[in-house]
Write a structure and sequence with these properties.
It is built from seven helices and no strands. By secondary structure, the protein is mostly helical. It has one domain.
């Protein structure tokens, strides 16, 4: 059986340290930022327009912000090559953008409350998968890494939800 060409390209891409850093950072940031925003905006507004607008802004503005941050951080490392720096920059932007945009799909097609639940589950699945591959790649025990990262993600969701609820109560 011949592996899928896309999988082979992804494996080749992830051999580049800069691209690997960008993919893991972009995906993690794409999930954590977006689920936090969804939870907070839902609790504060219960508005599809606000939640969807927030997701789209995160997908563009925060992806660009994170890519620039990654670029500058890589430039600060004297051991980074130009190829490494740009691979990290583009991988961060592309991954964060794509991951964040995936959260718009349930918001566009499902009732908002259901979309929020689906989005939280989707985000936790992505974090669990990233954590699994990270732990395996570093030859660490998988479950402690997965549970640590899921715990942080759940904390972000809960805190963001209660901030949104507080803002609604205090200012609506």
């Amino acid at each position: 059986m011949v592996p899928n060409k896309g999988i082979l390209r992804l494996k080749r891409l992830l051999k580049n340290k800069g691209a690997r850093s960008g993919v893991y950072f972009g995906a993690t940031s794409g999930v954590i930022t977006t689920v936090g925003l969804i939870a907070g905006l839902y609790a504060g507004t219960e508005s599809v327009v606000a939640v969807l607008g927030g997701i789209l802004v995160i997908a563009v503005a925060d992806a660009m912000s994170d890519a620039l941050g990654m670029h500058i951080a890589q430039e600060a490392d004297p051991d980074s090559t130009s190829d490494h720096i740009w691979a990290a920059t583009f991988a961060t932007f592309f991954t964060k953008f794509v991951v964040a945009i995936t959260f718009a799909v349930p918001v566009m097609w499902l009732p908002l409350q259901t979309a929020v639940i689906v989005s939280m589950c989707w985000g936790l699945v992505i974090i669990a998968l990233l954590s699994f591959f990270l732990a395996r790649g570093q030859q660490n025990a998988v479950l402690p890494v997965v549970f640590e990262h899921l715990g942080i993600a759940v904390a972000v969701i809960v805190i963001s939800y209660y901030i949104g609820a507080w803002v609604h109560t205090a200012f609506a």
